[in-house]
Design goal:
The structure holds two protein chains of two kinds. By secondary structure, chain A is α/β, with parallel strands linked by helices. Chain A has eleven helices and 14 strands. In chain A, the strands form three sheets. Chain A has a seven-stranded mixed beta sheet with strand order 3-2-4-5-7-6-12, sandwiched between helices. Chain A has a five-stranded mixed beta sheet with strand order 9-11-10-13-14, sandwiched between helices. In chain A, helix 3 packs parallel to helix 4, helix 7 crosses helix 11 and helix 8 crosses helix 9. Chain B has eleven helices and seven strands. The longest helix of chain B has 26 residues. Chain B is globular, with a radius of gyration of 20 Å. The chains are: A alpha/beta, B alpha/beta. Bound molecules: thiamine diphosphate and magnesium ion. The site of magnesium ion (MG) has 6 residues of chain B, from strand 4.
């Protein structure tokens, strides 16, 4: 099979097409995804290809259509719900957290919810306070959900397949800054990436930089600069938050003896804090320095580009955190 | 549903007629600059202009007691504060994310507020502000004031569950709130008939016993008469009211929407242009000898220059200082700092 060079957005779309072709029970639902081709153009062309039965334009009612998707999933359909942005999934938290996540447990395993909720999560460019949330921490806090945040087009392609095949509700978050990044992907082979496995994005020996989604590339840039200063960084792309592959993380820390967890979400109470706590609990003897953290500033996202850039961690923040470890 | 009131012979003074015309021209000039500002990269994020819809805000806001009544709307929020006496330079500065903006650059185009003037924003979550608007009415009623709240929302927002919840409580508690559904026929790229099972949105007040009407939004004089009548009724009766205003947005959903052809045809747009509220007012003013073509031309030019001036002054405002990022998270303390 020849490989194709696809953007993240195209990779997500390619996976949806393959899965929709393979299984009539897969359909997509969301705002402006059909006739308007999707706000971020992820679903471009799908309405023409599959029609309104399987590419469903919804009213602007996230709680309602997410709930309908959950109900449909309980009948054996495999809905993919697109959130125009993950910030809007806040409206559907009750359906996702208080309904979808509990159903398998409360029914004693009688009902399954093979649902995927996907969409752009995190800050883009001056979308301000109400449109810039990183939601993955809220979801990864919730037993019953699976949560993934791929950083590359290839992982997006392979993990979306796993998500669609999964019989549990999966939150699939795509940072808007990643839609243009490319990977070579072998289409049509059923390639998939399992949940609960980190990817070692870069090998190193002095410090482990642990991140997911867009922050992986920020760590890679920091690693390159630090390399020039004689510090060798290993970059771990967590990519699956729940389930979490602590084995790979701990092995890396055992090798480097230093760890910095990097995430875009608010610094306090985030999933990055959870990762740092696990390392603290399990790797105490391996650590030569306290676990470092780099997170987003604890403020609602400001509109001004100057202030916004200040809130989102960049490579300099990562470098500073590494240097602070001594 | 009450039938729309019959067109009464116009009772506006020549001064008011000129004022309404000026305000519509002013809004359009301002909004046109906003699109430029966005295209030249001096504003970012999402920015939504009011071009084509001017008559709605002009008709309604001129019928309020300014400085007393309350107004709230979604993210298409530049025109309303301008009509309430907010400083256009501060509005433009906010849209450009500058220090002299109403929120010192924290809000941007979607989040304009001038609370002192009674303008409560400026909200980005579709439907999310509709209970807040009812809450403003709750507040004024609780205090025994006779304020009226105008609660603007879009046709798309009219589907939101929280809007129905709000209507129920507004009726249950007799809140002096006017829900104004601006039906511009589109929710982003989705046509009305693809998002609403019943496209007569004025009917949404009926199950709750709220007086409800579908009204024209392109004839500023008609809007003005309807607005006066309804605002007076709500002030006197201290009960909610719902109107569906039929208007149209001529531009894209937001400044980033370059794909109008995905949801409407050129012909459709041209037909809508025939309803242009500004052109319509010009015809009226000419026909009734209120204003000459030359005078109108001069007014249009005046506001072109005015808008350039506003833009220039706003552009002179500095970007916020990085240290300001933590300001106003709380009223009385600072958040934890640092990455
Ligand atoms: C809860 C929520 N979902 C989706 C969006 C994205 N969005 C912003 S505006 C809009 C369309 C709203 O249309 P309408 O209410 O008719 O107002 P108009 O833009 O026409 O003034 C959508 C889908 C949002 N802001 N909030
Ligand atoms: Mg609309």
């Amino acid at each position: 099979m020849p490989t194709t060079n696809l953007t993240y957005r195209e990779a997500v779309r390619a996976c949806i097409i393959e899965e929709m072709d393979a299984d009539q029970n897969v359909f997509v639902m969301g705002e402006d995804i059909g006739r308007y081709q999707g706000t971020f153009r992820v679903t471009q062309g799908l309405f023409d290809k599959y029609g309104p039965k399987r590419i469903i334009d919804t009213p602007i009612v996230e709680p309602g259509f997410t709930g309908i998707a959950i109900g449909a999933a309980m009948t054996g359909l495999r809905p993919i719900v697109e959130m125009m942005t993950m910030s809007f999934s806040i409206l559907a938290l009750d359906q996702i957290i208080n309904h979808a996540a509990k159903i398998h447990y409360m029914t004693g395993g009688q009902a399954k919810v093979p649902l995927v909720v996907r969409g752009p999560g995190g800050a883009a460019n001056q979308l301000s306070a109400q449109h810039s949330h990183s939601m993955e921490g809220w979801y990864a806090h919730t037993p019953g959900l699976k949560v993934v945040a791929p950083a590359t087009a290839e992982d997006a392609y392979g993990m979306l397949r796993t998500a669609i095949h999964d019989d549990n509700p999966v939150i699939f978050t795509e940072n808007p800054g990643l839609y243009g990044v490319k990977s070579d992907i072998e289409l049509g082979t059923g390639f998939s990436v399992p949940f609960g496995k980190c990817r070692v994005a870069r090998e190193g020996k002095d410090v482990s930089l642990i991140a997911y989604s867009r922050m992986v590339s920020v760590c890679e840039k920091a690693a390159e600069e630090l390399e020039a200063n004689g510090i060798s960084c290993e970059v771990i792309d967590v990519r699956s938050l729940l389930p979490l592959d602590t084995e790979t993380i701990f092995a890396s820390v055992a090798k480097t003896n230093r760890a910095v967890v990097v995430y875009e979400d608010w610094k306090s109470g985030s999933f990055g804090a959870e990762i740092a706590a696990r390392i603290g609990e399990e790797c105490f003897d391996d650590l030569d320095a306290p676990v470092g953290r780099v997170g987003g500033l604890n403020v609602p996202m400001p509109y001004s580009r100057v202030l916004e850039l200040q809130c989102i961690p960049n490579e300099n923040d990562v470098i500073a955190a590494v240097q602070k470890l001594g | 549903m009450a039938s729309p009131a019959k067109m009464k012979p116009n009772q506006e003074s020549p001064a008011n007629l000129e004022l309404f015309y000026r305000q519509m021209v002013q809004i359009r000039a301002f909004e046109t600059r906003c699109n430029t500002v966005y295209r030249t990269g001096k504003a970012g994020g999402y920015l939504h202009v009011y071009i084509g819809m001017e008559a709605t805000a002009v008709g309604w806001l001129n019928s309020l007691k300014l400085g007393w009544d309350y107004v709230i709307t979604a993210y298409r929020d530049h025109a309303q504060p301008m009509l309430m006496g907010s400083d256009p330079v501060k509005l433009m500065a906010e849209i450009m994310g500058r220090k002299d903006g109403y929120s010192q650059g924290k809000g941007g185009s979607m989040h304009l507020y001038d609370i002192e003037k009674g303008f409560f924003g400026g909200w980005g979550i579709v439907g999310g502000h509709t209970p807040l608007g009812a809450g403003l009415a709750f507040g004024s009623k609780y205090k025994g004031e006779d304020r009226v709240t105008l609660n603007f929302l879009g046709d798309g927002a009219a589907n939101a569950g929280v809007f129905f919840e709000t209507l129920n409580m507004a009726a249950l508690w007799d809140l002096p709130c006017i829900f104004i559904i601006e039906n511009n026929e589109f929710a982003m790229g989705t046509r009305l008939e693809y998002h609403a099972a019943d496209t007569e949105l004025a009917k949404r007040g009926i199950p709750f016993g709220i007086k409800s009407e579908r009204l024209d939004g392109m004839d500023v004089l008609q809007v003005r008469q309807d607005a006066k009548r309804i605002i007076d009724w709500v002030r006197k009766n201290q009960k909610p009211y719902l109107v569906e205003i039929m208007n149209y947005r001529f531009s894209g959903h937001g400044a980033a929407d370059n794909d109008r052809q995905l949801y409407r045809t050129k012909e459709e747009e041209e037909e809508a242009q025939l309803r242009d509220p500004i052109a319509r007012m010009e015809k009226y003013l000419l026909k009734n000898n209120v204003m000459t073509e030359e005078k109108m031309e001069a007014i249009r030019e005046e506001y072109e220059e005015w808008a350039d001036d506003v833009l220039e002054k706003a552009d002179a405002s500095p970007h916020p200082d990085p240290s300001e990022v933590y300001d106003n998270v709380y009223s009385d303390m600072e958040p934890e700092k640092g990455h």
